[in-house]
Amino acid sequence: MVSLSNSPIPSSHSPCTSSSPINHSLVRSVRTVRSNIPHPHPEPDHPSSEPESDLGTSLTDSFIDTCLCELAATVAPSASKSHGLDNSIYSGILELSRDFSDYSSFNSDISGELERLASVTRSESPNSPSPDLPDLDLSSPELLETMPLESLEPVVKSCIEKLSTSLEEEKRRAAARIRLLAKHRSDLRELIGASGAIPVLIPLLKSTDPATQESAVTALLNLSLEETNKAAITAAGAIKPLVYALRTGTGITKQNAACALLSLSMIEDNRATIGACGAIPPLVSLLVHGSTRGKKDALTTLYKLCSIKRNKERAVDAGAVGWLVRLVAQGGLSEKAMVVLGSLAGVPEGKEAIVEEGGIQAFVEAIEDGPAKGKEFAVAVLLQLCADSGLNRALLVREGAIPPLVALSQTGSARAKQKAETLLGYLREQRQDGGGAAHTSWAR
């Protein structure tokens, strides 16, 4: 354990000007960070009134990579030149990312079809009798899972024909049926994709009818769960219309559009395209105004897209950092928020924004009061922020980090102990060097 009880801590002369957010962060306590956090409200024209569903809580299919190789590669070249940075940070980042996959899975149940079917009237249901559409109870998973594929081909063909009609009601009904047909079976998703459904679903992503848009988005999400359909959806030009649905749709439409983009981002080349088509700002909006499920979807999709540098910069420009820091302090989604912040800390703009938005204070509180996993995540991000920054180390000391770090180095998990010891070692170097450049700036 590293003892820092005698560490000299300057008490005046902020290193920043009085107008800087960092100046305020130097004098407010960690408790103030939490108590002053505003509670976001849904936008008036897009209220998040849809009921919360438990369908997505039994998560099985992970759409998150199990390591942060991109982040490690981004941090390593410049950081390795710093005398204070060692391989423990890189291993910590990778471990943190593996853990993130535990929080970031989803399957097609996220689209909430069963809940919606339980609440709609018979006249709205896609199972209502309709001319030229074979009568089939698509809300029964047991029936769909046991029917031979050849028996379902006429239903698929009829739905695709109706998707091309000029009648909005027929399009709405057909899109809803495709949505449910694509929900449960891999072979059926493959059949639907190969039968030509994708190109006729995409125009419906810009439908002015909310139900039609929602069904089209969710159908494409469910179809994208089949690997062979991902490239077809991309090639058909779905990314930009999906971003449009992410901006304009209902709460369920937005969260399912985010998930569809996440699924398409499994193709590495798509990540830059998705970012360039403007997905980052509406994802941040979903993070702020969405339901709990929507916030989770936004966090997961942001994490995946921010594996590339340009999207990290876009997320910082879109104001993601401030809201992520608020989520860290609020709890609930704090672990996922910390991992996304760890990704954004891979660019200089991200590090600066995290500090300006009070991230250091929030992470200290997470180490002090948070759950065991949150403590690990928090100390891992603090390592990124403080490895090559004397100023950030000084801010960390001023926020009272030493006692909780010492406690973590004694009682935390093996990984948490190692990270806490490494960070305490950096703070000891700061003391032995007399504060370095930061100490000089305090003397002004």
Automatic annotation (TrEMBL):
Protein name, entry field: U-box domain-containing protein 4-like protein
Highest classification ranks of the organism: Eukaryota, Viridiplantae, Streptophyta, Embryophyta, Tracheophyta
Biased composition range(s): Basic and acidic residues: 40-49
Stretch list, region Disordered: 1-23, 35-57, 118-139
SUPFAM superfamilies cross-referenced by the UniProt entry: ARM repeat (SSF48371)
InterPro entries xrefs: ARM-like, ARM-type_fold, ARM_PUB, Armadillo
Domain of life, per lineage: Eukaryota
Residue ranges, compositional bias (Low complexity): 1-21
Record-annotated U-box domain positions: 156-430
ARM repeats: 196-238, 319-359
Keywords attached to this entry: Ubl conjugation pathway
SMART domains: ARM (SM00185)
Organism of origin: Carex littledalei
UniProt key word Iron: no
PROSITE patterns in the record: ARM_REPEAT
Keyword Heme (UniProt): no
